[in-house]
Every structure is written in structure tokens, then in C-alpha cells.
Amino acid sequence: MISFLSSAKPFIHRNGDNQRNALKSWLALSPEVEVILYGDAQGTDEVCYKLGIKHVPNINSTPSGVPYFNAIADHAKQYARHDTQIYLNCDILMSDSLLQAVKRMTFKKYLMIGQRIDLHEDAEFAPERTDWIDQLNQLEKNKKISLHPPSGKDYFVFPRGLWDGISPLIVGRLWYDDGLLAFCFERSIPIIDATYDIISIHQFHGYNHLPGGVKEYNFGSDVEFNAHRLRSTHSSPLVSDANWILRSGKLEKSYARGDRLRYMELVARYKLKTMTGSFVLRAIWRILRALRFYDIHKLEIGEVLHAYGILIAEGKQKI
Hints:
Layout: E1 2-7, H1 13-27, E2 34-38, H2 44-51, E3 54-56, H3 69-79, E4 84-88, E5 92-94, H4 97-103, E6 111-113, E7 117-119, H5 132-141, E8 145-147, E9 155-159, H6 176-186, E10 191-193, E11 200-202, H7 213-219, H8 221-230, E12 244-247, E13 250-253, H9 260-271, H10 275-290, H11 301-313
Parallel strand pairs: 1-2, 1-4, 2-3, 6-10, 7-11, 10-12
Antiparallel strand pairs: 4-9, 5-11, 7-8, 12-13
Helix pairs in contact: 5-11, 6-8, 7-8, 9-10
């Protein structure tokens, strides 16, 4: 089974509703699921008590109260009930597809990630119902959902102890997710893209929970901290850079989803450790793309929903 790890925003207004929906979706997966919330954001203690969730309010955090990822990982390594763990943003809805995907993992060490589905501001979705695919298909027909670009990473599945030695990164802020991927690339830890097999849904929200709003999220001191730990934010890692893909329950080797120039850039940066070489390859990539001499496949929401439908038809998913 799996231990869910997360850090919440204050449980007020829309963010509060979104997070309660997400937590309930995780708990609904199995009676054996464990959920641990870190930090002392407003309302966390009350929600944890009502839902029977473990609460760790005292965790190494920034002055503003945002936990460091390495502190969460260290605590979970020692105290979480399950060896398989997932850190994810507290407003992400998860379906049974996650548990099915975890069963397919054959690596001793790995990181599993994926692109999420974004609900638009006016999208109505009922997570308590069991017909998620039907709801998503209807929302896609009405153009009220979209597939988030591969630059965004909202969940990370990994075995206990994977993050030993990782530098401090501030969760929920720009660049922290890129830092997690960079850590794995630098150590040749397999990264699996599970976009085709895991249904993860992001509920719409604003940035009113931050003192400076979206500007704080993109340019605040926490972002500068993460960028410094990443060392270089040039051409940062993407979901599509994963070296394995989980599709229809099967693991397949991947070379940046067929983007060979991008794959060469990743090799230069993380295996050969030549930033200059990666810069040159990226420049070539951009030039060829601008001149329309080089095309890459862009994954679309319809393709992902079709893949989910096949899994359900084959009996590999419940939702």
C-alpha cells in the first residue's frame, strides 16, 4: 500500500474545499492508505482530526511556515507506515489508477511522475462519484479541462529512503519539483512518466493564500532559494524527459517521448555533466523548432482520456 505525504494551504474558502476533496479522494482508495499532513497551516489540525489523518505540525520550515521537502522525506523515511510513498500537492484528486500503477513498478529505486488534468475555473466535477471518466469526457467536450504542460509536476511516487542526501527545497514553490527530477537524473535513478495510466486532477484555485499572490509564487524569496539549490534553471527537467513510460500497465523505455535532441541535451547535462554542451543542444533545438525543421509530439487531453478509457475497458482500472 502507500503513504500519502503533503503540506496544506490554509483550509479556508475555495482552497479549503479543494483540499478536503483531495484528502477524501486519497482516503477512499483503500482502508490501508496512510495520509500524513505536515505543517501548521490554518485549520490543518481540525481537518486531520475529523478525517483521521496523521498531523505533523512541527517540521523544519521557512520563517513563513512552508515545510522543506527534505524534512518531510526524512520524517516519512523513519515514521511512515508504508515503503511506497507519494508526495503530492494537497489539492490533487487521485483515483484508483495510482494504486494500479504502483503495482507495476519493478525498480528498487524509482521516481514516478505525470502530467495532471486541470479543471477550469467554471468546471463542475464531483469527486465523490465513481464515474470520473464520464465526467472528464463531458468536461473535455465542453472545453472545461486541459492537460497541464509537462513543466508542471504535482505528484511524486517513490520508495522509502530515495531522497537521502537531497538539498533543502521549499515545497509548493517554483523550482522545487525540478530539483527533485534533477536529483534523480544526476544519480541515474529511473524516472517513470505515468501520464497515460494515472488520473490526477488539479482543482482550480487562485493565489490569495500567498501575501504577494501569484507574483510571490513566481518571484518570491522562496523561489530564489529553490533556484539557488537547483544551480541552473536553464531548460529545467520536464515530465516528458522521463526515461521510462508506463502505458497500458506496461513499462516502456523512453527517450524524451521521441524528442531525440532533447534526449541528447539531457545526456550532456546529467551524464556527461557538460552544461556548455547542453546549452548548445538547446540552442539548436530552439532554432530548428523556430524554423519548423524539427517537430515533436505534443500530448493532448483527448489522447490521455482515450488511454484511460482503454485501461478501464481492459479491466485494469476501476474508474
